[in-house]
Write a structure and sequence with these properties.
With 882 residues, this protein is α+β, with helices and mostly antiparallel strands. The protein has four domains: 58 residues, no CATH class; 230 residues, no CATH class; 311 residues, no CATH class; 202 residues, no CATH class. The strands form four sheets. Strands 4, 5, 6, 7, 8, 9 and 10 form a seven-stranded mixed beta sheet that branches. Strands 15-16-21-18-20-19 form a six-stranded mixed β-barrel. It starts with a helix and ends with a helix. It is a multi-pass membrane protein.
Length: 882
């Protein structure tokens, strides 16, 4: 009989038994037909049961058949105890689903290979160095001129590809009134060929499209953008759109699988780097990421050394023209090292921002899964203890101990399988939900959640791992049952309870760590959210305006008056860029002709009335006025006064800035204001200088500004259309780009902290609930096992306090031990996550006490039902039972 037939027979046991019965009866009939007595024939053939057993073993694979039988029996046991089974499946599903969701995020952000040829050989340039102030600094962008020199230096050994980080930009397919947002990326024209990509429609960019500055206004759109924006219309080829002052023509659609090289962002439009005319000319404008693709068989280290030599020579030559930086600060410049890091899975800012947070979330979900496994392990252990006589009888009639362990593991596998299916559904929903929480509506995070072999392997590992985690212990204990002792009343019940108590101790330790980290993240988010900003962000609308023609001179005052006259507008002013928008302009200054210090100050251009519009406190002096631009009058903040004047009133003092042309500009301080969070709420307040908008610290012209509109309505975004129309009608040479509220920028500053706080709090509640349920189950089981003992003690005069100590003393000792272990683990974890914290330390007594108190309260509530049950035991009933 073939192996396949024997496998099939395992799952049609009834049919096999019928065939064996028919064969047995056929032999009897043949014997009777041959003249033998039926009774003698049956006696000679033996019992039907023996023949069925022997025939069954021949027709099926024995171990597979026993496994099938154990699975059926395990399913019946689970169905028999539906409530506890559902609770076990749900708790496991939460743990498995959270682990699955975390892995999907990690896979999409860090592990998914780029859909290009030779992705395993792709590297990205990174510069590790320090600022002039000696602070460590890492960046991964370079200027176009140095990129081209590097490419020429390693030609024949490696291909260098330049790619601008994808960014949201305004594009127009018809008129400026129908402006829309798209992710645009300037790339080297030879990128598509180097990555081995093919067009889905039309053609892709080539090296010829990227040779002459501003000469080839061609664009390739992504397959996703083609599908969502144009419905895969083949007529998209040849369509034109305007971006800035340039009119681009679409020449092709990129490969369907190519979503860019930045996990978290998916470019919609690719244009040649040469179309950024200003960017390709500026030697100091680091706006391009550089990727290195060495040719087959070429070592990467010699390539890196050649690139670094070009970079050093280029930067040293550029530094010769820097007259605005003290010579002593330029000694040893450039100090940074050029590194090549593997980039087969892409490079993005989101990877850097969320590497540690996702690691922490991974730790939390693993701890939650361990708590759930401990709960189920105690549940199965309690069930197997209740079935100890059944196990003893099975051993007595010939079942092997390995078969008992297999029976328990089969039940565990069914639980794990059901939980894995439910957890997979949860992970399928949870991962995109978390991603939506990271981004915001105007700039969403885009990740590809593909289900590859690694996702399947991880799911299988989870199913197997959880089965072994909570099933091996009960299976091992079941296989060690002594039949004689069990049939007389069981083994030492204390031994079984001690095992459960150890599991509770581990649960408590894990739960404490989860609570501890959750408290750290929630406190961090709360303190960041409550940190004074120095201005009032409520009801403020920001309109980023750009000149259509940089040569055109705009008179802003009439426009500001028209905007202020609109219904719902209280105040209006101008600023160079929004506060907390991520931009800054740092300059070194000289106090009264002294040499420049190595402390930089943040410069921001503003219009008169800006501090009133933003509600920034004026400490002394006066606000800027229209005529202050010619007098180089400025405002400074409290941190500036503290840095240079020891906190004294700086009004009337002056300082100079040194431009790139070597000519010093003198600035007179006419007022000082409160500190304002300018770039990042995580950083301390730094010295700031506010100067008239139409000049920056170097006296050069500007071509963009942000209109700051304080409204009287609760939701300022309702005025967007009205104000956009007012600007474009009043000043045709201006166009409005991004429109956002100041509150959106404030909330964006704490997206990471909000995500960590919300997820950690959710995990903490689930972990606490699971630990409490587990503790309740163990205490209830303990009381059930010791009912007679407790009844006798009550009959002998034991009081409530004594009964409570009997029930809870040992398990409370394990809880305390677990909490101490969790405290030690939490302190170790706090060192690792210190970079994610703000205004809180893991070693603070309050930080340690808060999770301990919450855990203690949960333990008391979990123990209360078991204590009440113990105190209500009827001594007379227990004595009669004795």
């Amino acid at each position: 009989m073939s192996v396949w037939t024997r496998i099939v027979n395992v799952f049609r046991s009834d049919r096999v038994n019928c065939e064996i019965a028919e064969e047995f009866e056929t032999h009897i009939e043949e014997a009777v037909a041959a003249g033998r007595n039926e009774r003698e024939a049956r006696r000679a053939l033996g019992t039907y049961v023996r023949h069925r057993k022997e025939g069954h073993q021949v027709r099926v694979i024995g171990w597979l058949d026993s496994l099938r039988a154990d699975a059926i029996f395990g399913w019946r046991q689970l169905w028999k105890h539906k409530t506890t089974s559902v609770a076990a499946v749900l708790s496991l599903a939460l743990g498995i689903g959270a682990c699955g969701a975390a892995f999907r995020l990690v896979n999409a952000l860090f592990l998914r290979p780029l859909p290009i040829q030779n992705s395993e050989r792709l590297y990205a340039v990174r510069l590790d160095g320090v600022t002039f102030q000696g602070k460590p600094f890492i960046w991964d962008t370079m200027s176009y001129p140095v990129f081209m020199k590097m490419r020429a230096a390693v030609a024949g050994q490696a291909e260098l590809i330049a790619m601008e980080p994808a960014h949201r930009n305004d594009i127009t397919f018809s008129s400026d009134a129908e402006m829309e947002k798209a992710y645009v990326q300037h790339v080297s024209g030879w990128m598509f060929a180097a990555f081995g990509l093919r067009p889905a429609l039309g053609r892709l960019l080539t090296e010829d499209d990227d040779r002459v500055q501003g000469a080839e206004p061609y664009a390739v759109i992504s397959y996703g953008y083609w599908s969502s924006r144009f419905g895969r219309d083949p007529g998209v080829i040849g369509k034109s759109f305007r971006m800035g002052d340039d009119l681009y023509r679409i020449v092709g659609v990129s490969d369907r699988g190519f979503t860019g090289t930045e996990p978290g962002k998916m470019p919609d439009v690719f244009v040649p780097t040469a179309m950024n005319v200003q960017g390709v000319r500026e030697a100091g404008d680091g706006w391009l990421r550089v990727f290195v693709l060495p040719r087959s068989g070429i070592a990467i280290e010699p390539v890196r050394q050649q690139m670094y030599a070009v970079y050093r020579a280029f930067e040293q030559e550029r530094a010769k023209a820097w007259t605005n930086i003290p010579k002593e600060l330029l000694i040893g410049y450039p100090r940074e090292k050029l590194l090549l890091r593997p980039a087969g899975t892409g490079v993005s800012q989101m990877q850097d921002d969320y590497r540690v947070p996702l690691t922490v979330l991974g730790l939390l979900v693993v701890l939650m899964l361990l708590i759930a496994c401990a709960n189920v392990a105690n549940l199965i252990a309690a069930r197997s203890s209740a079935r100890s006589r059944e196990m003893a009888l099975r051993i007595s009639i010939g079942s092997g101990r390995l078969r008992l362990a297999q029976m328990i593991l089969a039940e565990s596998a069914i639980l794990a399988g059901l939980a894995t299916v439910a957890g997979a559904l949860f992970a399928f929903w949870a991962a995109p939900f978390v991603v939506r929480s990271i981004g915001h509506a105007d700039d969403p995070v885009r990740l590809v959640f593909g289900g590859g072999w690694n996702v399947l392997a991880f799911g299988s590992f989870l199913a197997l791992g959880t089965t072994l985690l909570f099933g091996l212990g009960p299976a091992f204990r079941a296989s060690k049952i002594k039949p004689a002792s069990a049939l007389k009343g069981g083994d030492d019940p204390m031994a079984r309870r001690r095992g459960m108590y150890l599991v509770i101790g581990a649960q408590t330790a894990f739960c404490f760590v989860v609570l501890f980290l959750s408290f750290l993240f929630v406190t961090t988010f709360r303190r960041l959210s409550e940190r004074p900003l120095g201005f009032a962000p409520e009801r403020v609308l920001l309109l980023n305006t750009l000149k259509k023609d940089n040569k055109h001179v705009i008179d802003w005052q009439p426009l500001l008056e028209r905007i202020k006259a609109q219904p719902g507008v209280e105040l209006v002013a101008l600023e160079g860029w929004p506060l907390l928008g991520g931009m800054n302009d740092n300059e070194l200054i000289s106090m009264k002709g002294a040499p420049p210090t190595n402390v930089s100050s943040n410069f921001l251009g503003i219009s008169p009335g800006w501090i009133k519009t933003m509600k920034i406190a004026l400490l002394d002096g006066r606000d800027l006025q229209a005529e202050d631009a010619r007098a180089h009058a400025v405002l400074v903040n409290r941190a500036f006064a503290q840095q240079y004047f020891g906190g004294r009133d700086p009004v009337g003092q002056w300082f100079t800035t040194l431009g790139f042309n070597g000519t010093p500009d003198r600035h007179e301080i006419v007022g000082w204001v409160a500190d304002v969070a300018a770039k990042n709420v995580h950083e301390p307040m730094s010295p700031a200088v506010y100067l008239p908008l139409h000049t920056d610290a170097l006296g050069s012209s500007w071509d963009s500004a942000t209109l700051v509109v304080r409204t009287s309505v609760t939701d300022p975004s309702v005025l967007t259309a009205t104000l956009r129309h007012t600007v474009e009608q009043s000043e045709p040479e201006l166009r409005v780009g991004d429109v956002e509220t100041q509150m959106e920028l404030v909330r964006a500053q704490t997206i990471r902290e909000r995500l960590l706080a919300n997820l950690a709090a959710f995990f903490a509640v689930v972990a606490l609930l699971l630990a409490a349920v587990g503790l309740y189950g163990v205490l209830s089981y303990s009381v059930l096992q010791r009912e007679r003992e407790i009844g006798v003690r009550i009959a002998l005069g034991a009081r409530l306090g004594h009964v409570t100590r009997i029930v809870t003393a040992q398990i409370f000792a394990m809880v305390a031990t677990g909490a101490l272990a969790g405290c030690a683990l939490g302190l170790i974890a706090a060192r690792y996550v210190q970079s994610l914290l703000y205004g809180v330390k893991g070693s603070d007594p309050i930080t340690m006490a808060a999770p301990a108190l919450v855990l203690f309260a949960a333990v008391l509530l979990s123990a209360l039902p078991a204590v009440l049950r113990a105190t209500r035991i009827d001594p007379a009933t227990m004595l009669r039972a004795e």
